[in-house]
Amino acid sequence: MKKSARRRIDVNLDELDRVLDGARQAPLSEADYEKIKDALHAMAAMLVRPRNTEKTSAVMDEAEGSGKAATQPDTNAAPPAGHGRNGAEAFGGAQKVEIAHQSLTHGDRCPQCGEGNVYGQKEPKVLVRIVGQAPLAATVYSLERLRCGACGQVFTAQAPEGVGPEKYDETAAAMIAQLKYGSGIPFYRLEQLEGQLGIPLPAATQWEIAEEAAELLKPARDELIRQAAQGEVIHNDDTSMRVLRLAREPSDERTGVFTSGIVSTSAGWKIALYFTGRQHAGENIADVLHQRAAELPSPIQMCDALSRNVAKLPTGVEILLGNCLAHGRRQFVEVAANFPDECRYVLEMLGQVYGHDADARERGLAPDERLRLHQERSGPVMDQLHRWLEAQFAERKTEPNSGLGKAITYLLRHWRPLTLFLRIAGAPVDNNIVERALKRAVLHRKNALFYRTLHGAQVGDLFMSLIHTCQLCTVNSLDYLIELQGHAQDLAVRPAEWMPWNYRETLERTAAEGRNATT
User: Fold this and answer.
1) 423 partner at 20 to 30 Å CA-CA among 98, 295, 383, 416?
2) Cβ pair 337, 394 in contact under 8 A
3) Dmax of the chain from CA atoms?
4) Where are the alpha helices (DSSP H) in 48-122?
5) What is the pLDDT of residue 497?
6) Is the distance from CB of 236 to CB of 322 less than 8 angstroms?
7) What whole-number distance in Å separates Cα of residue 359 and Cα of residue 369?
8) Cα angle 217-219-223, degrees, rounded to a multiple of 5
9) Using CA atoms, how far apart are residues 371 and 504, in angstroms rounded to an integer?
10) Cα(470)–Cα(482) distance, integer angstroms
């Protein structure tokens, strides 16, 4: 996941004024010409609105200019279905309160007509009420104390039932981790917010709470790594990260620090893992795959074409390598302004492939059925595109060193791994799932700027792994973090039973065992 960095240009306005004044008297020198050119290019780059989509229609409209007449919206178009509001069933995390009728019960005589009886309806009337509150709230209990006037013994009232011995309970640690590592809110910003709401919560205290909770949750993270190694398809990529205090070996020539994202999928679950340090994504996925069971078939690895993303595995251990088609497509998106006709052709051909993949997903096809669909529909499209790409060079229609030539070369050079989805059942078309996962690390980098130490980065990796895995499995991550802390002892003994996709079943079974033990 790499973006080309904008070249830094230091602009001295006084110097530019001097150059412009001198241009009135004599032609510009070569050095002054370069200064003016660089300044103008920098200003033009800042004025260009960054693209927020890579859809073919948006890319090609931008490439072909905005000279087309603006179309007026159709006022007679049918309104979209639905009212745009969330129904009561969408509030899965809300507190549910059932209220019986205050004066009537099932079978009572109707008070309106006095002739019929009233009967309960299948669907109750539902009211949704949303209240605001601080992310972390506090309750101050004032326990009355009585002192004996003779012996001096002090008697203190008992704390209410449910009030634990710790000042910060599991819910506080879970919410801090959710806000910091799930939503990208830095500790200092949460400290300011809570302070304004009358709840002092220093940043150092937040870190201590998160660090202590991370220690309890390590068995869950370790189990995620073990199960991720058994996945059928494993995606990986990385992004840059800053760690202020990172000790390196004297022989270490690397200067970069990365956060690698790994998303492993199999029937019934998806797992996201994050690793921050000096290692590249390929090295981190190799470490994960060392825990793979020997009897399992070779996994599919999906990544972009960078060599550092490919796992370096021991002799005899094989993977089925696929490359991301979205990365190949992006090569043409970036040069569409200079080669609109050629790029439109490539983007529309690849759009057909993505359309077939979306169709397979909507129909819920099994991997073998999806493979047959792609072979029947996408195979001819990709064959035609391959012939067109080769003809651009063979018939000298495209200069190999041009932007378009480099984009074509990228596709041709990596054609076999780019088309793995046409040969192997279950092979994905692109690596977008891990690109989306890495946005969580990018959000942290954008808001918090850095990790102070490698230990701090490892705590962040742990929470991001748990939180994003919950998101992939459509599980309430806050509830999951709370329950893991509340059952830390059982988690340490049986971590496989406390995964995001099965922890609710474990809770129900534990509760049933507790009820049976008391009867």
Assistant:
1) 295
2) no
3) 109
4) 56-63
5) 96
6) no
7) 12
8) 125
9) 34
10) 13
- Both tokens of 190, joined, read 């949460």
The pair of structure tokens assigned to 320 is 């089925």
Listed in sequence order, the DSSP H helices in 197-302 are 203-228, 281-289
Cα distance between residue 402 and residue 176, in whole Å: 50
Q: Sheet holding 269-277: strands in order across?
A: 269-277, 258-266, 233-240, 300-303, 320-323
Residue 220 has φ and ψ, to the nearest 5°, of -70, -45
pLDDT tens column, 290-304: 999 989 999 999 999
C-alpha 288/C-alpha 306 separation (Å) is 19
pLDDT tens, position by position, 182-224: 999 999 999 999 999 999 999 999 999 999 999 999 999 999 9
The number of C-alpha atoms within 13 Å of 15 and in the hemisphere containing its C-beta is: 10
CB within 8 A of 62, min separation 6: which ones? 51, 336, 337
> Going by DSSP bridges, is the β-strand pair 300-303/233-240 parallel, antiparallel, or unpaired?
parallel
Tokens of 103: 């004066």
Residue 12, token pair as written in the block: 């001295």
**Three-class SS of residue 424?**
coil
Distance (Å, whole) CA 228 – CA 226: 5
pTM: 0.85
Q: How far apart are CA 468 and CA 181, in angstroms?
A: 10
CA triplet 147, 152, 155: central angle to 5 degrees? 40
- CA dihedral sign, ordered 279, 281, 282, 284: positive
In 24-55, alpha helices (H): 30-47
Half-sphere exposure of 229 (CA within 13 A, CB side): 16
pLDDT above 50 (res 351): yes
Q: Give the mean pLDDT of 260-285.
A: 94
CB 252 within 8 A of CB 278: yes
What are the tokens at 369?
């059925």
Phi/psi at 487 (5° precision): -125, 40
